[in-house]
User: Which sequence fits this backbone?
DNA sequence: ATTAATTCTATCGATTTACTAGACTTTAGA
DNA sequence: TCTAAAGTCTAGTAAATCGATAGAATTAAT
């Protein structure tokens, strides 16, 4: 399941993608437009900025805007940024790999292979969902 | 990600599936064989029993055994039993549906459709992974 | 009756989650 | 240069969840 953070991030990106080119959106505007607690959204937007999905202008008349094409922002990326691994166990993960501590045969646990199959399919599906694909609904 | 409970459940089922027909396995035997904390495993086996994957014999010489074919126990079922919904949000879930509280257009949130696509693909993949498919590795 | 097993209920510490609070910094414009 | 309006940063917090443990109760074979 997605955390609220990830869900709000998607909704915020969706909001930004729906604005006119060159429009800058204030946090409060996004918060109200997408129904997200404002103070919580502040943190999320900072995370999105660190992830280079959006950028910001400070000071009066400042706000946020997309710096990545809505066609290039995928669900997979947002999931990883906020919720981490897409695989079902760390030992089956590409980006968040960790060996499992409780496997007797250290190199290969009994579940790893099957979970890697799942990961590949899920990842492929998640990479197919972009902000752009969500906007045109 | 899978919880430890779900992971241990899979490993316990795998252990049971590898035993001879008619063999009854004590909790402690499974715990040692699959490297799972015994007291924790007790709870998990009870859950698996309530889910009708295994059954038990009480008292001396008691223990656990599979009552469902290893070909018919899927990752999807175990995920649902221990970790709940497979969909990324409750509003996109088949078995754990709940409307999202923060969506303005109540019937359809902007993410729902895309997340249902993901759910269908993930579910299909997870239904393809059975205990039997994990055993023969 | 004894022993060995499952079953049930409760609890616990640590971590995570979903926020909130408030001080600080930056910028535009009067 | 002052002020209002914006983002930035660091903490904190209440509630829930997770991973596990404890111990008493029950059941069954000998």
Assistant:
């Amino acid at each position: 399941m997605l955390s609220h953070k990830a869900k709000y991030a998607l909704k915020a990106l969706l909001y930004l993608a729906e604005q006119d080119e060159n429009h800058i959106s204030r946090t409060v505007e996004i918060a109200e437009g997408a129904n997200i607690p404002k103070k919580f959204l502040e943190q999320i937007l900072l995370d999105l900025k660190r992830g280079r999905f959006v950028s910001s202008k400070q000071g009066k008349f400042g706000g946020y805007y997309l710096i990545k094409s809505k066609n290039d922002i995928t669900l997979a990326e947002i999931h990883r940024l906020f919720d981490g691994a897409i695989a079902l166990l760390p030992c089956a993960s590409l980006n968040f790999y960790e060996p499992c501590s409780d496997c007797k045969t250290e190199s290969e646990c009994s579940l790893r292979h099957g979970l890697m199959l799942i990961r590949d399919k899920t990842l492929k599906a998640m990479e197919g969902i972009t902000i752009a694909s969500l906007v045109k609904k």
Summary: The two ends of chain B are 22 Å apart (CA to CA). The first strand of chain B starts at residue 54 and ends at 57.
